[in-house]
Design goal:
The chain is an alpha/beta fold and 270 residues long. It contains 10 helices and 14 strands. Helix 4 packs across helix 9. Strand 1, helix 1 and strand 2 form a beta-alpha-beta unit. The strands form 3 sheets. A 6-stranded mixed sheet has the order 2-1-3-5-6-4, sandwiched between helices.
Length: 270
């Protein structure tokens, strides 16, 4: 039997990935299980050794380890090198290689929404590994300009220098008359209790010519980004379609099997 896993903090246990992957693996006849592992930050290095020692077949990485896992890997894909974040690890014997399927998952989910962002302005909230992947893909799709909003000016500047875009510190953000064809939340904040000050800022956003609001999180109620979309009369997408596309790409990297994203989506809630 093959063992696959997701590595993260306490949020790993709330992820849809174990149920999603386990059902799809069963449906396609793989003799495999997919389990969540909660890891303390100081245990990340030993956990990577554990993947090698236990002959784990493949792993996903979620917050807060998408960037800090990199020094513990043997190889990186070109995309992971450019983005500076990893969400999928292949285990070939003792060789661990990091990939980033966040970016391609976002691109494919965006394509299904029939929105063209080439030459259009984009606004991304967040400066972590997920945000880096989204900004990379927006740049690849020729969105312009790309505004990156976050709390930490150093992290913002690092992304601008590494990938591109322009930065905006949240505390200094003008919420009036924002030009953004697409708005993406790549932070962990989706509900008012997560960060009341962020919720207040989002509720005061005035968007012009927006065509889509995306929250990379899912299952959050109430959702401040969905509320924003409703108040602005804009379509809303949560993170499940993107997660399904990421999962499809992860499974292909691990097994060579190409399973439609719809097969992953069909497992949700079942």
């Amino acid at each position: 039997m093959q063992i696959f896993c997701i590595l993260g903090d306490g949020r790993a246990s709330y992820s849809q990935s174990p149920a999603m992957f386990s059902k799809v693996m069963q449906n396609v006849g793989l003799n495999a299980v997919y389990v969540p592992f909660e890891i303390a930050p100081e245990k990340l290095g030993p956990a990577m050794g554990g993947l090698r020692a236990l002959n784990i077949a493949g792993a996903n990485v979620t917050a807060p380890f998408k960037e800090t896992v990199i020094p513990h890997l043997d190889l990186l894909s070109e995309g992971a090198q450019i983005v500076g974040a990893v969400n999928t690890i292949t285990c070939n014997g003792s060789i661990l290689k990091g990939y980033n399927t966040n970016a391609i998952g976002f691109m494919k989910a965006l394509a299904e929404s029939n929105i063209d962002i080439s030459g259009k302005p984009a606004l991304v909230f967040g400066t972590g590994g997920a945000a880096r992947a989204i900004i990379f893909m927006l740049k690849w799709l020729n969105a312009d300009p790309i505004l990156i909003a976050g709390r930490n000016s150093k992290k913002i500047n690092d992304i601008v220098a590494r990938i591109g875009g322009t930065g905006q510190v949240l505390a200094e953000m003008d919420t009036m008359a924002i030009q953004a064809h697409i708005v993406v939340n790549a932070t962990t904040v989706s509900s008012p209790p997560d960060a009341p000050e962020m919720a207040a800022l989002v509720s005061n956003l005035h968007l012009h010519n927006c065509r889509l609001i995306v929250d990379l999180n899912y299952g959050r109620t109430p959702n401040i980004w969905q509320g924003l979309a409703g108040s602005q009369g804009v379509p809303f997408m949560d993170g499940l379609p993107i997660l399904a596309q990421q999962a499809r790409n992860s499974l292909f990297l691990w097994t060579g099997m190409d399973v439609e994203a719809s097969e992953f989506m069909n497992t949700i809630g079942h």
